Design the sequence.
């Protein structure tokens, strides 16, 4: 079905609001998405959302951005995916490009309001874990899967470890959850054809293999930058902070940036909402001005577009098969466990350092859960609370 212009503008508007208010990293983003897309706007049901999260946990790249792109594609096709990405990504990318120009030496790492934004992430993730656990791990078996997954994730902190745990949970679900009743699964409403999906896969692997070869045949600085950022966006599992050492290995040893420039940008990246992968826009801007920032940003996220476009049509068909439904029940319970582990580390451990911090997190949680205030209001409240705590401390 052809998507009209109004639906694209709606996607852009909603995702821009999220791009301006979604602080706290990728796990918190999933909480913001769930509140906006599932609970408030009902663009998809809880289970379909969880299935999308499970898919994007499997794919390399920024999982939260891929979930946002997927929802945009469900709502408005390829243009909807682009609109969703633009709204969620460009606010932080533009802010970091400005940082690159005028705030390279500005230290935001100890700002009180920034600490408040880290605290509100505790409340957002806790709300998401609570809601998803009630839906996806409601019985003893799946609750146990979630708890065991959380414990192992805390002890074995590895992106590949998470993939193994998800695969094992799916295998367990196939054999031990298969006999339970499987509810009817609605279609995701993907308008992308399988032909387009195959083209996306061909482009993905073609660029991944071809760019390094082209870089050797026809040396060019901008081609080298595009290749480096495309490769990082294609091969990093776990997203978020996992990408930092890979980026550093690409830009510092080559002499494109100094260590101090890299770390200054990382500090700035903590002060903006949206995906951490927009750090690429800062790096590119430092290297080559706004043109370099744009090239690095596009190269960093292009793999996610190709992977999501190539996966969604096949995923929608596979996920509705009865046998795969039992696998997904185990996988979704494991995803709840991974979110539960992330609630402690890094979300809790990086934000809660005193009774005042815990009090502010509780207040934010109450405003979300009991008073049902919009997340952006709670974000502003927590930023002000963090600034006040810094004055009192």
Sequence:
């Amino acid at each position: 079905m052809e998507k009209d212009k109004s639906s694209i503008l709606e996607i852009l508007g909603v995702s821009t609001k999220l791009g301006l208010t979604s602080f706290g990293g990728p796990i918190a983003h999933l909480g913001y998405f769930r509140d906006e897309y599932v609970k408030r706007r009902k663009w998809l049901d809880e289970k379909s959302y969880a299935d999308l999260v499970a898919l994007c946990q499997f794919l390399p790249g920024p999982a939260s951005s891929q979930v946002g792109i997927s929802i945009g594609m469900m709502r408005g096709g390829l243009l909807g995916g682009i609109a969703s990405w633009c709204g969620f990504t460009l606010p932080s990318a533009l802010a970091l490009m400005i940082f690159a120009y005028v705030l390279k030496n500005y230290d935001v790492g100890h700002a009180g309001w920034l600490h408040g934004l880290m605290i509100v992430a505790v409340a957002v993730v806790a709300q998401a874990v609570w809601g998803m656990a009630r839906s996806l791990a409601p019985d003893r078996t799946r609750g146990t899967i979630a708890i065991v997954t959380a414990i192992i994730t805390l002890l074995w902190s590895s992106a590949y470890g998470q993939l193994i745990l998800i695969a094992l949970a799916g295998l367990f679900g196939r054999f031990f959850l298969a006999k339970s009743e499987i509810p009817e699964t609605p279609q995701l409403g993907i308008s992308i054809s399988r032909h387009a999906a195959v083209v996306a896969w061909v482009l993905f692997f073609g660029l991944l293999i071809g760019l390094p070869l082209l870089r050797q045949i026809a040396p060019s600085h901008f081609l080298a930058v595009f290749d480096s950022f495309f490769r990082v966006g294609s091969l990093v599992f776990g997203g978020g902070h996992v990408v930092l050492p890979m980026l550093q290995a690409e830009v510092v040893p080559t002499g494109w940036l100094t260590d101090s420039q890299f770390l200054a940008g990382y500090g700035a990246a903590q002060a903006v909402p949206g995906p951490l992968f927009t750090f690429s826009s800062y790096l590119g801007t430092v290297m080559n001005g706004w043109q370099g920032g744009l090239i690095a940003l596009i190269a960093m996220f292009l793999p996610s577009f190709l992977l999501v476009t190539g996966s969604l049509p096949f995923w929608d068909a596979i996920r509705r098969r009865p046998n795969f439904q039992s696998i997904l029940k185990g996988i979704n319970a494991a995803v709840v466990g991974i979110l539960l582990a992330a609630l402690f580390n890094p979300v809790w451990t990086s934000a809660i350092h005193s009774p005042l911090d815990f009090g502010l997190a509780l207040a934010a949680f109450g405003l979300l859960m009991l008073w049902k205030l919009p997340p952006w209001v709670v974000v502003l409240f927590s930023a002000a609370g963090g600034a006040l705590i810094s004055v009192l401390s």
Observations:
- The chain has a mean pLDDT of 86.
- DSSP finds 15 helices and no strands in the chain.
- Residues 279-319 form the longest helix (41 residues).
